[in-house]
């Protein structure tokens, strides 16, 4: 349970605008589930570029809702709703469930292995999301953080041979529980200005890839690969000493 803010009025003394602001933030977070559903519809229609568009919008919501929640003081002004639980539910839909479905039906996996690969993604990510120490003290993720929306995006853009794609899914699933760390690009202080610039560049290149129906020019592909290597290297640079 979150500690009570001594400067905050008791819940029964809050003004209607304060209550509404807190509830509006929770509603904004929950809208990510609706965006995930739109992405799922697009995936069932095999319109994977549209699917990633909706997942990108959901990622944007996820990127700003925490700041809004702190400003609206949702922990004390809407205490019956857990923003942390809500965030995990929405993240599982948009980061895991929809991308797993896309991997199962897209043909990126070897024949007969699409559903098993998707089930592996769903189970390992569910276990990861239930982990109580998924972050280090300096806010790196312990193990592969279940960002299957990003992993699937790379598989769609790069379109490797199916057996290589399957090997990557298995490897990332195993890395979920490995003693390594991955950067949180918005929160880790190590090289933060450079990382934020890299994140902005990645967003532009990813948008170009979606705009091109996931068949981007070579400079976009190589740019995305280089930026992925940068983000992965930050975890290696930090070292294997988990705090």
UniProtKB/TrEMBL annotation:
Compartment(s): Cell inner membrane
Swiss-Prot/TrEMBL catalytic activity: a CDP-1,2-diacyl-sn-glycerol + choline = a 1,2-diacyl-sn-glycero-3-phosphocholine + CMP + H(+)
Keywords: Cell inner membrane, Cell membrane, Lipid biosynthesis, Lipid metabolism, Manganese, Membrane, Phospholipid biosynthesis, Phospholipid metabolism, Transferase, Transmembrane, Transmembrane helix
Keyword presence, Cytoplasm: no
Listed EC numbers: 2.7.8.24
Transmembrane residue ranges: 20-42, 85-105, 111-130, 139-157, 163-182, 194-212, 218-237
Enzyme class, UniProt record, top EC level: transferase
Membrane-related topology note: Multi-pass membrane protein
Keyword Transferase: yes
Cofactor(s), names only, from the UniProt record: Mn(2+)
Sequence similarity: Belongs to the CDP-alcohol phosphatidyltransferase class-I family.
Function: Condenses choline with CDP-diglyceride to produce phosphatidylcholine and CMP.
Protein name: Phosphatidylcholine synthase
Organism whose genome encodes this protein: Chelatococcus sambhunathii
Lineage: Bacteria, Pseudomonadati, Pseudomonadota, Alphaproteobacteria, Hyphomicrobiales
